[in-house]
Amino acid sequence: MTALNIFGAAGEYKFCVVCTHVLNTCVSGSTGQKFRLCLSWSQQEPSAQVASQHLMDKRRPQDILMQQPAKKNRIDAPMAIRGPIPNGPMHPRPLVALLDGRDCSVEMPILKDVATVAFCDAQSTQEIHEKVLNEAVGALMWHTITLTKEDLDKFKSLRVIIRIGSGYDNVDVKAAGEMGIAVCNVPGYGVEEVADSTLCLILNLYRRTYWLANMVREGKKINGPEQLREAAQGSARIRGDTLGIVGLGRVGTAVAIRAKVFGFNVIFYDPYLADGIEKSLGITRVYTLQELLFQSDCVTLHCNLNEHNHHLINDYTIKQMRPGAFLINTARGGLVDEHALAAALKDGRIRASALDVQESEPFNLATSPLKDCPNLIITPHSSFYSEQSVSELREMAAGEVRRAILGRIPDSLRNCVNKEYFPSAANSVRFPFPPTAFSDNMNGADFAAFNPAAAAAATAVAMGAHSTMDRRPIVSHSNPHSTLITHSGASNLSKRESSDSVR
Fold it and tell me: GO terms for molecular function, please (predicted)?
């Protein structure tokens, strides 16, 4: 019998597909024993719990009717029009589901007072429980499964998807927005771990540590300088080499800071950043991808993946790299054409490469074009991981779900990636005070004469009239400094909000 795992404050319970409402009789799939369980009871604190059978006996007929709210047809209008997630008498505990995992120990303390939390442990959308498809208003997901437009159509009550990680290329964001489903990510976690892992891979490529350690493990004896020269062939000095960073977001910046300590000359390419950031970091900016590839002894990727930069590193761009350069990818597997990389490694055009992400995951080396490549390090999409970073990630994801339940979508969400589909977000005022309320050259003397009450009144009038007041200048992401059009005609870097965490 198919089971859905539902968590409550008192423990974990299994509800079969028959048990779609509280206080129904359920037959255990393993023992055949019949039992009754009140979901409302299971969610109460221990001091307030009442035996479920006693509660069934005492419940009034009208209470039993209240526990089975009428099914409502899905409204396909944007969520900002539909309003916040129902949390009133008819839906006292909205259902939130972890689609592709089974551990909810971090999420439960954050959500147990506002939602029922279930896990599906699904490896594909076909394994998602029917109760989740019909009733879940919130979904948490890792990168195991993909939600296409057809998959999203199966969810009847879904209002928010939280991608537990930074990348959201496994969700059809456009289709979700058109259905009124907000999609959020968690871009700020694991920055230190990914940056540290990137430097670890760079050091391994330069110093050949990985291969030398394997030689010792395999029992090979190295005697004399000639054998050592042969074993360590390809090792290089770091100081004075040029490290090229594609995408200077959170992780890219952290990598740049660390690389400078090792003696790298750091350059970067990011067409979506304002001028001047390079001066604050003491690094060099280039304005085309070709220029970065031509100057770099080592190239590391730290940008998100979308339809414009798929296979950013391909046969055409590899030929623009310095002969014997290193390549590191801890961002997204789809950024690198693995067939082109395999050919370059075998030809020696790329001296060595390290990949933490692959085009197809979980990665199978036996069926990959990289299976016979020399000088290659592959790790299993793990550069983000530490006990601290994962705990922080899950807390941030659960907090976003909580804000969706208690607040208004998308205004209460911190990292909604498809806000443009919600009218309330488009009409919201960006800044609390209109710039006209302040002097252009405001300083201490001007501040002494500034009238806060007048500024607040001016703000209220402006907001009430939906004024199209002048706003603080912001950097346009629609007109980057430059874009490289590859041989396939695709733009060379993803449009993103300077975010390059990789999970």
Answer: oxidoreductase activity
